[in-house]
User: What shape does this take?
Amino acid sequence: MELGHGPRGARRSRRGAALIYAAFGALLAGGLVATTLSLSLSAKKTADARREHGAARFLAEGGTEAAKKAIQQALANWEDVPTSGEVDIDGRSVAWAVRPTGYDHVEEDESGIQTQVVGYEVRARAEVDGTTQESLRWMNARITPLFQFAVFYTNDLEVNPGANMTINGRVHSNGDMHLTSNGATLTLNTNYVRAVGDIRRHRKDDPNNTGGTVRIRQWVADPFSAAEPLSYYTLWSKSQMSGMGIASTSGFDSAFTLGHDAELDGSFLEDGDLLPFGPGALEYWGPPEGYAGGGGNTVQCSDHDVGEAVVPRIGSIAMYEEATGGDFIYDAASQSHLPAPGGPGTGTHSKGFYHDNAGLSIVVEPNGTTWKAFDQHGIEVTASISAAGAIAFKDIYDARQANGVAGTVRVLDIDMQKLNASGKWPANGLLYAAHKGATTGVNSKGVRLSNGTTLPHKLTVASENAMYIKGDYNKGSASVSKKPAAVIGDAINLLSNSWNDSKTHSSGLPAATATTYNMAMISGNQDTVGSTYNGGLENLPRFHENWTGKACNIKGSLVNTWNSAHATGQWVYGGNRYTAPNRNWTYDTDFNDVSKLPPFTPRAVSAVDVAQL
Assistant: This one.
């Protein structure tokens, strides 16, 4: 009987063991679930921490980028570099700080271009949900006189001449660069062609137009030296590449990203191959074969991380610009600026840079007939200049501003020789002249410089209005050499030696004669929008006569850093507007020497990271 109890006891024992195992399994499963939950929560915390860490790092780096831009903008606009600031990034405020490192020296390249290099430490700190990250960088601000560029554009640079054209000197665009030629040859004789954006081998207003020939010099240390080899490589057009058996969208430009490997061997080194544009630009516009003068690359763009060069804002040419804590209050009724009633620093506006620093300023009241002049100390000198007969008012026909119909533009005409005879030539070489109350169209108003064949001293003339240069300017003579000179305005208009103010909307085009302008110029322009072309570099200085077959000689620098605010008329060719001259335009190599730059030459400021933590 007892033996009979054995199996029942074993079953009870197994049932007990099963219960124990079940309980243990439940505990184990519960532990595994708990462990899994714990691991999951830990992984989430780790992922959240990483996300917060990454987000904070992103914000901090954005803060240092904002600090770099603030340094560039301050230096470009002749302001003190801020020591601290804040920037809003994705709804979060990020504080940044700047301090100079003490590094400050001047670099000079083989051709004499001089760049001041100043070091700064920039630091930013950001916090995301309790996680703090800091970005620390050391960077160099590179300050280059703006007139040491043959061509400088803040926005897209477009060049499409209808006759052969050569550009000597550095060419820079903070946007894209569109290089074509309307059945002619465009030559860039330089070791510096830079675009922050892309380089395009087609017109901006017509992507299907890739005509003409464009050739760019291969890199040499000093492109201004006749002793250097003269070797060019072509920026191939779409049709030229098609003739080579190579398909492309618009030629050899930034869109040519795959290259052409005829043998499909991956080398791009055989005859008939063509590298993609990024590496190809470095290869084909490097030094000529066998060149022993060092190494460099003429052509660079977004493929090569070209950085923006910051330039002065348009407010620098304004008579008055908005400024918190300014010295003036704007009175809309009289269109004038009155001293702030609470004293300097309590107003809404301040003088623009050029007006504020002018050795002589001439301001026209809204009535267009009353003017006053002041020297650099604020002393009125109107009587002396008036007695010399240096100032007159003229009404001229500007078909671009009149949009081809009737209507004239009132201009303040300054006779440069009589101004000198008045004894009130600006002592510091800066003349500012402008009209109050200018708007657009024929009410844009303007300032004209006449009788300026020879200048007695170096001179920069600035205006918030359109500027007109009548006849030879700073050409010099056998006894008077040309001087460092510049004109800066809302637009620059060139009138030949033959201009006599007789043009009307129905008179036809007056005949131009060969005229020489030795000056740097900063001019506003309009953007190309859709199929509406802005005229390109070849029409940056505006014309108003029949220049066909006549030489327009410019020696200086061509700069476009803002859109015109007053002279907003669109570019149109022919009709009662103008016909194009023979463009004999070249960079003035005297500008390579900073002592020979025009007074108050603005600066282009780029930034280069040196190290980062």
User: Anything to note?
Assistant: DSSP finds seven helices and 33 strands in the chain. The first strand starts at residue 84 and ends at 89. Residues 1-24 have pLDDT under 50 and may be disordered. The radius of gyration is 33 Å.
